[in-house]
Amino acid sequence: MKNTSENLLGLIRFLCVVISWGLTGILGASTALIVSTYGKLPIAMALLCLVGMSGAVAIADVTIDACIARNSIEKPSLASDMQSLCGYVSSVGALIGYLSSGVFVHKLGAQVCDLRSQ
Asked: 105: exposed, middle or buried (C-beta count within 10 Å: 0-12, 13-18, 19+)?
């Protein structure tokens, strides 16, 4: 009976992580799309979208940290390796994001926000 309950708990944890990642992906992508698509957003709307993008990244980061903490409790010998791997992958992802944003700015040009017209 204990094995069945552990499997069910593991499945529930997995589903929560997948749903969390899915929601943060949708939130981050939709707010980034709004900011990049509409040229003259009101300041409050632009600020709300930027907060949504930052919130999506923060939620995903907290979810990953919780998974690492849980796995570190179960396998303490791998705790430092998991933390290092997470930091490495996060850094690589950030570099890819910076690289792609640089390419887009080069191809599309800088987008100017005129705050005087608000």
From this structure: exposed
* pLDDT tens figures, 61-102: 888 888 888 888 888 888 888 888 888 888 898 899 888 887
Domain count, the chain: 1
Q: Tell me: pLDDT of 116 over 80.
A: no
Residue with tokens 């939709």: 30
The boundaries of the domain holding residue 104 are 2-117
Yes or no: say if 20 and 63 are a contact pair by the CB < 8 Å rule: yes
Q: Is residue 37 within 8 Å of 8, Cβ to Cβ?
A: no
Angle between helices 2-37 and 43-74 (to 10 degrees): 160
Q: Which two tokens stand for residue 103?
A: 């390419």
The overall pTM is greater than 0.90: no
Residues 31, 37, 42: CA angle, nearest 5 degrees = 70
